[in-house]
Every structure is written in structure tokens, then in C-alpha cells.
Amino acid sequence: MVVYSNIYFDENVFCIRPYIFLAAFKDSDLGWTPNSIGIAIHDYDDFDIGLIYKTEEEHFMNVLHELINWMYDHEQGISLYKALLNPFEFFPNCNCEKNQLVKRECKIRVTHLRNGIVER
Questions:
Q1: Are 38 and 51 in contact (CB under 8 A)?
Q2: Rounded to whole angstroms, how far apart are CA atoms 41 and 49?
């Protein structure tokens, strides 16, 4: 299962626009262990930061539900960029094992997008 949503931040340090990507694997698939959920913030260049949640089978749906609700909540407001830099505090706890997925920061500040072309 894959879910995308928008996310908005107080600082414009992303290349084009950041988004949240969630991938959930109830069964072992594509190298993921069973009952794993990856959630991350990406942009359209080189920013990727997130966590992998590893749950017990009986808690998988509850953790998935919590993460999707968290995505919805963040789509409705403005998030603090500085909080994102510590993913273990930015993403919800969910009372299960968590591992950092990726951490790369965009090196180029996009000033604006004009007619589909990024101007820096």
C-alpha cells in the first residue's frame, strides 16, 4: 500500500515542493520485512528524510492508521522545518521499533517556479 500527501513548512528550503510518502508492507515484499511501514518527506531533488516502523502483526493496522492520520494532520497546517531535522521527534512514536530511513538535505534553495521551470 502506498499513500502520498502534501506537507507545508515554515521555511522554503525544498526543491519545488515537499511531500509525504508512506509505503506499508504487511507481507515480506521488495526486500521489506513483514509488518513494516516506511514514511518519509521528499522533494523533487535530493531531500529525503524518514523512518521505518517495524510492528508486531497485531499492531500493524493501528500503526498504519496512526501514520495516515498524522499525514492528514500535517497536510492541514504548517510544519516547522527545524523540527524535521530530528525525525525521531518529528514523526509519531507509535510505540514500536523505528529506524531512520534516509537523511539528505537539499543544497540548492529554489526561489520560485515559473512556467514549470525552477529558478534558483
A1: yes
A2: 5
Q: Note the pLDDT tens digit of each residue in 55-69.
A: 999 999 999 999 999
* Burial zone of 36 (CB within 10 Å; 0-12 exposed, 13-18 middle, 19+ buried): buried
Determine the Cα–Cα distance for residues 103 and 119; give it in Å rounded to an integer.
25
Q: Residue for cell digits 513483514?
A: 34
Residue type, 82: K
Q: Could you tell me which residues are beta bridge partners of residue 19?
A: 6, 42
- Is residue 104 over pLDDT 60? no
Name residues whose C-beta falls within 8 Å of residue 89's C-beta, 6 or more positions apart in sequence.
Answer: 83
**Dist CA 13 CA 17 (whole Å):** 9
